[in-house]
Amino acid sequence: MDKTPLYREVAGRIAALVAGGTFKTGDRLPSIREMSRQAQVSINTVKVAYSHLEDQCLIEARPQSGYYVCPRSLQLPKEPKINRLGIGPQEISSSKLVMRLMRDTTDAGMVQFGAAIPDPKLIPAQKLGRLLAGASRSHAAESAGYSTSPGSKYLRSQIARWMLKAGCTLNPEELIITTGASEAVFLALQVLCKPGDTVAIGSPIYFNFVQMLQLLGLKVIEIPTSPVEGLHLDSLRHALRTSSIACCLVISNYSNPLGSSLTDGGKQELVAMLAGAGVPLIEDDINGDLGHNDERPSVAKAWDRDGNVLLCSSFSKTLAPGYRVGWIAPGRYHEATLHRKLVSNIASASPTQLAIAEFLASGGYAHHLRVIRKAYAGKLARMADAIGRYFPTGTRITRPTGGFSLWLELPEDVDTVALYSRAESQHITIAPGRIFSSGDGFRNCLRLNGAFWSEENRWAVQSLGRMAEELCRKPPIESLEP
Amino acid sequence: MDKTPLYREVAGRIAALVAGGTFKTGDRLPSIREMSRQAQVSINTVKVAYSHLEDQCLIEARPQSGYYVCPRSLQLPKEPKINRLGIGPQEISSSKLVMRLMRDTTDAGMVQFGAAIPDPKLIPAQKLGRLLAGASRSHAAESAGYSTSPGSKYLRSQIARWMLKAGCTLNPEELIITTGASEAVFLALQVLCKPGDTVAIGSPIYFNFVQMLQLLGLKVIEIPTSPVEGLHLDSLRHALRTSSIACCLVISNYSNPLGSSLTDGGKQELVAMLAGAGVPLIEDDINGDLGHNDERPSVAKAWDRDGNVLLCSSFSKTLAPGYRVGWIAPGRYHEATLHRKLVSNIASASPTQLAIAEFLASGGYAHHLRVIRKAYAGKLARMADAIGRYFPTGTRITRPTGGFSLWLELPEDVDTVALYSRAESQHITIAPGRIFSSGDGFRNCLRLNGAFWSEENRWAVQSLGRMAEELCRKPPIESLEP
């Protein structure tokens, strides 16, 4: 909840002028000096604003000439609609597709546009390795010796301190370290629900959450989520009035797969609404540190007054997925969550906890985030641009403000499970829309992992676009018969 | 299933002579030369045999004089009876005690006779730390980058190779790496059972397994286990005939808490019986590498012909509990187990997997085991001796041949939960018998963690003995009234 810096305000105004058509593709922008005068800000602020817009591929500098509006800003496809009614309650179906997708991630020969894996080049592996080695030396006993949940106190203190940026005052004693955010959410669901219960989820939602609900024998009410404004609160309100709901699971910031967030007001309303209904909220904030505009948005937990919010996150997207360090602040469900964690596996591995605690303590994390936020913003902008070029007319695409996933809505007759199979044979993996819901929706949607965008992988986007085009044009099966 | 070396045969014969009274406490044994002639083995073999018996505190060398039978061998209390009828099916009760016990383990000011924690001095923390650092350098990407289950192939290959010693031919593809053996068993139970199902367990059994059964809403039939011969197979046969059982959970080697094992024949019979009944076996072999006689016993899985055995183990007792590296070979339940692992937490941490794989590959593990097996044998022998001295008359005690736990049966009127509370106030933690069962049994029993035996902790055994004595003598509450 940092205050918006001036340069971002200026950049925002310019972006609005471009969006509104004041400056069109190829137009030259006012010089830095001119803009400084017009906007009544310092020359330096304009420089930073222009450079920010460059990172987002909105404008480009041409040597000896000035700044120009990039072509891409107009080619970019529309945002997806997603405004259908909520689905449910209903039982969830099969899991084969998700297992295949997970297995694809271990295949180094594939272009990893499927699972939301961070770019290996943006993982500070060497630095973390040194910290890991250091911790094993200086804390040999703590590192190898008996460990039990809630996990490293040092790490819990560092997380509590970090989360102040998200408006959240946590005591280290409230936190439990988990094996990634997945375990955090899985524990929370098990603590709050018994088989047959109904869970309200933002939809579409991370496919592994759908798997969890299925494994636990839970029913689902899917609350529509806007690619721009996040969870549709009125739909949730309606569901709370009409159904008996055991808990609500929401990705509050840069949601997976849509990339949209609730505003502060929205979060506050969500927390109040659920507290009023006596329904606990599982809040997943795994992408919270990955805002492209270098801001740290609030978490809903910041407005939690009675321990009704179970906040879950991890360092798997920002630092090192292989370290498997996540956490949960389970509010008034602390004792039950701790018990379930102890029974499930006693504790998560110690050495990686210590290494990440050191990383946070050293201040290295904040610097690292600045680097990767910018990098992911750039990757998504360039990938979106490529999609605009190569995908069939009618394709819609999200404009996430954080994280590194893009969500695409293809023309209605394209089945993205078919696209997945074709792509797999070309050594490209994608995440078909169907697995992001408990129902049959999103069949013409897909999520792409923008972290693996690079010019070298442009061919893969081009290839996906061609395959999608073919699936569009494919005549219905009947007409193949004479 | 190594062949018994000659020195151990000789040592066994001498131990039998001591047990039979041929040599009594304080008697001088034949000199090494004499014994070599009598037993028709080399002088060196006798030397090693005597040294082995010394480690077990059966005999002692007196300088310039020879070898003598130690006093302790006669003072050692009898073995516990434990021959009651099976309990169940019934619901399981509370968990507060276990959470308190787990919390005690993080208190450095306490004597850790409670949880079965290895001796920190016997954890190769520095060596593992170096391997951890090495792996993070040479496999930076694999270590920090995205990882997914089934986990490190390198580690799985090393485990498969190692388990050949237990008569078990495993393909690395059959294995799934878990967060300790606890997660392995928890996954297996979830895959095999639904709430309300009945599980047959060896009893008494590791308290966390009792917690798991409770959390999962399972019913329990407790099959009596002998402190000498392991699981009572006839009781299991009876249970299989009379109840509908979803699966059977057994610690086959050096069971926790009793320390007894099934013979090869017993294991074979167990596997055949369960396969015949169509009931899967979850086999926990966590102590399998900790045989005091330096042998590696077989696992029941070695006789599994149709994938009916789900074998679980870890390196938490032998190498580093904090690394949380365990594994499961789930037989024909591989796909279901892998799916549940992926959904639960995607994967366990990578760096510690790589470090342990290196440890195994380097041959360091076998050497390390020789050292710690001997150390734990000695610790248990000395602790048992101290218990014999300080505990009330009528106390019975196990003679485990592996692992590092001792199980005590105190006079019937001693409530070990009361003893636990008193001991806690003296900064000693123990594991009361009650938590090792789903029922009300074992109220006068307790498990002591022998890994923390040392002369410096003798006062704690003495103190426990005194408290137990007081609890024995305490007049019944009625008689306090005039």
Write structural notes for this entry:
The structure is a homodimer of 482-residue chains. Chain A is α/β, with parallel strands linked by helices. Chain A is 42% helix and 15% strand. Chain A contains 17 helices and 16 strands. Chain A has helices at residues 6-20, 32-39, 43-55, 72-75, 96-104, 125-138, 140-144, 153-162, 180-192, 207-215, 233-242, 264-277, 334-345, 350-361, 364-390, 416-425, 458-473; strands at residues 59-62, 66-69, 87-90, 111-113, 176-179, 198-203, 219-226, 230-231, 247-251, 281-284, 309-314, 325-329, 396-397, 405-409, 428-432, 445-449. In chain A, the strands form three sheets. In chain A, strands 3, 5, 6, 7, 8, 9, 10, 11 and 12 form a nine-stranded mixed beta sheet that branches. A five-stranded mixed beta sheet of chain A has the order 4-15-16-14-13, covered by helices on one side. In chain A, helix 10 (207-215) links the parallel strand 6 (198-203) and strand 7 (219-226). In chain A, helix 2 (32-39) crosses helix 3 (43-55) and helix 16 crosses helix 17 (458-473). At the A-B interface, helix 5, helix 6, helix 7, helix 9 and helix 10 of A face helix 5, helix 6, helix 7, helix 9 and helix 10 of B.
Q: Which descriptors would you attach to this protein?
A:
disordered C terminus, homodimer, nine-stranded mixed beta sheet, 482 residues, 17 helices, five-stranded mixed beta sheet, alpha/beta
